[in-house]
Write a structure and sequence with these properties.
Layout (H helix, E strand, L loop, with lengths): L1 E5 L14 E5 L10 E10 L4 H4 L19 E11 L9 E8 L3 E5 L4 E3 L17 H13 L9 E5 L4 H12 L4 E6 L2 H10 L4 E4 L5 H8 L4 E6 L3 H9 L1 E9 L18 H9 L3 E4 L9 H14 L6 E5 L4 H9 L6 E5 L4
């Protein structure tokens, strides 16, 4: 079988490349330990936060940096092919946030989470997206940090709006009663997807349009909630147009992940002053703080997906040997929706 290792670090303030990843042959586990399971990898998740793990120091206390020459790990879904665990049987589908990028994996049975494919109509990849961590991140961000209230005619702006979290967060905000959702993204195709398929009220292409001017037109009464996936200049522009007592949901800062800065990155003095004088909340948000609500959240997300209220798009790359290319593409905006690597069929 094969695995993907970290062959080299991009270096601080540099873009990752496919040369940072290497595919190598490895031995498939045969005689697994008692209490363990052997898993066949079905899908692997590719996410922006992984860029931080490519550095010697991830910059976040809850993220372990990847080690050179070792298999890369992240979100994964697979099926049990051999079991010496009393809690898991052959054929069970499981997930983990520490799944090595390789064809077969041996895990302790108590270190993976069993999932039910029936709640996603057999689309197991959704456990890495809309009915997984991105979905939960979007749901609890809007629900717990956004203060979205039906009937209050709120306007939400979402940056990175065509990505895994952004595309879900805007839809969830509308389901929760937000009157207007505006997406910011990096191509006309993404803008079209947001407005025509997801029914965002407006979309702004930051690469070809003046974000400040467009935002004043489409959010003329100001911004009440900002779902921030990117940080940097775009976020500063949005914050300047936010209303008093509004809320920034600090989900991600992808524009800053190649830089040697702490998380969350500091903002300019004028933005700090706006946040202070307008009493705008901008707190570090970590979905892992809501683990007691995960099951309830997953069932809600699955229900919305099944009913068609939550529309899902995936950018799927086939083959474990293409994990590095999928990651680089995602970091440069090549995906719409969740970036997934399909490794094997169930």
């Amino acid at each position: 079988m094969k695995r993907v290792i970290l062959a080299g670090r991009p270096g601080v303030d540099k873009l990752p490349s496919v040369n940072n990843f290497e595919v190598e042959d490895c031995t498939c586990p045969v005689d697994i330990a008692d209490g363990h399971v052997l898993l066949k990898t079905l899908y692997l998740s590719v996410d922006p936060y992984m860029r931080c793990r490519m550095n010697e120091d991830s910059g976040a206390d809850y993220l372990e940096a990847w080690k050179l020459g070792e298999a890369i790990t992240g979100g994964g879904v697979g099926v049990v092919v051999t079991s010496k665990s009393s809690s898991l049987s052959v054929g069970d589908v499981v997930e983990s946030f520490n799944w090595p990028w390789q064809h077969y994996v041996e895990f302790p049975g108590n270190k993976v989470q069993k999932v039910d494919p029936s709640i996603v109509d057999g689309r197991c990849s959704l456990f890495l997206g809309a009915v997984g961590m991105p979905g939960l991140t979007s749901l609890f961000g809007v629900q717990e940090k956004g203060n979205v209230k039906p009937g209050e005619k709120q306007t939400m702006v979402v940056s990175g709006a065509a990505g895994a979290c952004g595309s879900l967060a805007g839809q969830i905000a509308m389901l929760k009663g937000c009157e207007k959702v505006v997406g910011i993204c990096g191509s006309d195709a993404k803008c079209k997807y947001l407005t025509e398929e997801l029914k965002f009220h407006a979309a702004i292409n930051y690469k070809t349009e003046d974000v400040e001017k467009c935002l004043k037109n489409v959010a003329s009464e100001g911004v009440d909630v900002y779902f921030d996936n990117v940080g940097g200049d775009i976020s500063n522009t949005v914050i300047r147009q936010m209303n008093p007592e509004s809320h920034v949901i600090l989900c991600g800062q992808i524009s800053q992940y190649n830089k040697d800065v702490p998380y969350p990155p500091p903002v300019p003095e004028d933005i700090q002053e706006i946040l202070r004088t307008k009493n705008i909340t901008r707190e570090r948000y970590l979905v892992l703080n809501y683990q007691d609500k995960f099951l309830e959240g997953i069932m809600q997300l699955a229900s919305w997906v099944k009913s068609g209220q939550l529309k899902v798009k995936e950018s799927v790359v086939n083959g474990i040997e293409n994990c590095g290319a999928a990651f680089v593409s995602m970091m440069t905006g090549g995906n719409i929706g969740k970036q997934i690597v399909h490794v094997a069929d169930l």
